[in-house]
Amino acid sequence: MGFEDRVRVSQRPLFLGQKITVNTIRGREDTIISHLPDGRVVLFDQKSQYFNLLAPSQSVEGHIIHIQKNFIIVNPISEPIEIEFIRPPEVEAEDIIADLEELIKKVSGNAEVIPKALLHIIRLQKLMIKILKGEAVG
After folding, report:
1. Cα-flanking dihedrals φ and ψ of residue 53, to 5°?
2. Could you read off the pLDDT of 11-56 as tens digits, one per residue?
3. Fold of 3-82
4. What is the pTM of this model?
5. Cα–Cα distance between 4 and 110 in angstroms, integer?
6. What does the domain layout of the chain look like in residue ranges?
7. 32-35 and 25-26 as β-strands: parallel, antiparallel, unpaired?
8. DSSP assignment, residue 87?
9. Is-contact 73 66, C-beta < 8 A?
């Protein structure tokens, strides 16, 4: 179920027996939950044969078995599927600093404000990291 499908789910009334797919996260006291786009919490039926397989970062398909104002209960109908997260390539702070410095040279006036502010924040963050690591600052 893509973003557009989830938005459509939130825009039409939910009904008992409706089949939905949600992504799991860790809730309070290590429970596994999900959220609907409208903010309602999704709880999972503890009687389901798949309940003990639930973990964070999974996609779960199930039928709605209970609907309340602030939450719904879903009965999983298949084994949860692990969600693969694609990590963006790591960028070194020095590369970002160099790009910001080049940008500042190319713009003027109000257009300089944001790149200069970002540059200042990055430099402060680097300084704080050095201080926390106990490295010499100077």
Report:
1. -90, -10
2. 678 899 999 999 999 998 889 999 998 889 999 999 999 999 999 9
3. OB fold (Dihydrolipoamide Acetyltransferase, E2P) (2.40.50)
4. 0.57
5. 37
6. 3-82, 93-133
7. antiparallel
8. P
9. yes
